[in-house]
Amino acid sequence: MNPNIDNLIGSGVVFNVEAFFKELAQLESKGVPRVHERIHISSRCHLNFALHAAVDGLSEEELGTSQIGTTRRGIGPAYSTKAARDGLRVIDLYHESFEQKLRLLAEGYRKRYGELLKYSVEDEIQRFKAYKDQLRPYIVDAVEYMKVMRENKRSVLVESSQALMLDLDFGSYPFVTASHCSLGGCIQGLALNPFSIKYSAAVNHYTSINLTKLDVLDTFPTIQVGVAYIIPGGEKLTSFPADLSLLDKCTVEYVDFQGWQSSTKGARTWSHLPSQAQKYIEFIESSVGIKVVYIGTGQDREDMIFRE
Questions:
Q1: What is the pLDDT of residues 23-74, one digit of tens each?
Q2: For residue 199, what pLDDT band results from cuts at 50, 70 and 90?
Q3: What backbone phi and psi angles, to 5 degrees, belong to 121?
Q4: 33 with 41: CB under 8 angstroms?
Q5: What confidence category does residue 173 fall into, taking pLDDT thresholds of 50, 70 and 90?
Q6: For residues 101 and 104, what is the distance between their CA atoms, to the nearest angstrom?
Q7: In what order do the strands lie in the sheet with 39-42?
Q8: Interior CA angle at 30 toward 26 and 34, to 5°?
């Protein structure tokens, strides 16, 4: 949590109150300055309850060998109730109907899972009674918050977990997350002005690439880059197929590159990279038509090559 920035948990997030306060306490214990003053929560965030986590585990068990592989923290069920319009938002915590709506939500899941659902709605209600006053100072109208940021010409850096192949629409469905991790999801979830964002490649319209973990490849004698999927019968697909059953039958066409087999760990300039590593990166650039501007070469935040 950079000491020079303000932080907003945007409207598109499903928000776990317990995890929020635990992380704040950790940051405070590490001496991060003004922790409580510099983090804000959109009043429109949907709440991620212990109920959702309990259901997430049961849902995964039902799938048997076809499990999605969720974190079992209730993210998917929280987004499901949001889409079904049964969800509860942060602002709903301050309405008289909060307890009734949470009981109805729990009752619906109880009808489906019966005694398999190990969850007490009354315990959850009591927890949220305690959270109610604690949470209030952090809550903002995120639309107004972002409007003020724009008016003050503040720079905005968006941090989003996951990436395109876990996007609900464009990822490897159903093995995806429950939200939209594309650029469109950022615009929607934060009320960003799309006209202030530059565009340039399919779906996300990237303008540059941040290539991470180059040093992980240091010991590979050969590095294979997948360039196409070949379906039975020999037809070549150059984009990711939407049908996972088709993908399962595909073979991958690779281009082989000679490994550099020397350490790139901690490299800070392009000239310090072996020529084989440079060729590998240049091939990625030419294949996708986007420049690799950032190259990660280690665990330290300074282990980064920046190319103009």
A1: 999 999 999 899 999 999 999 999 999 999 998 878 766 666 666 666 778 8
A2: very low
A3: -65, -35
A4: no
A5: confident
A6: 5
A7: 7-9, 39-42, 139-140
A8: 85
Comparing C-alpha atoms, which of 200, 204, 228, 170 is closest to residue 291? 200
Q: How far is CA 103 from CA 38, 58, 111, 123, in A?
A: 34, 19, 12, 11
8-state DSSP, 45: P
Residue 158, class by beta-carbon neighbours within 10 Å (0-12 exposed, 13-18 middle, 19+ buried)? middle
Reported as a single tens digit per residue, the pLDDT across 91-104 is: 999 989 999 999 99
Give the residue carrying structure tokens 């301050």: 94
Residue 10 has pLDDT above 70, yes or no: yes
Q: In which residue are the tokens 């720079």 written?
A: 155
> Which residues 6+ apart lie within 8 Å of 238 measured at CB?
227, 228, 229
- SS3 call for 141: coil
CA triple 20-123-141, angle to 5 deg = 40
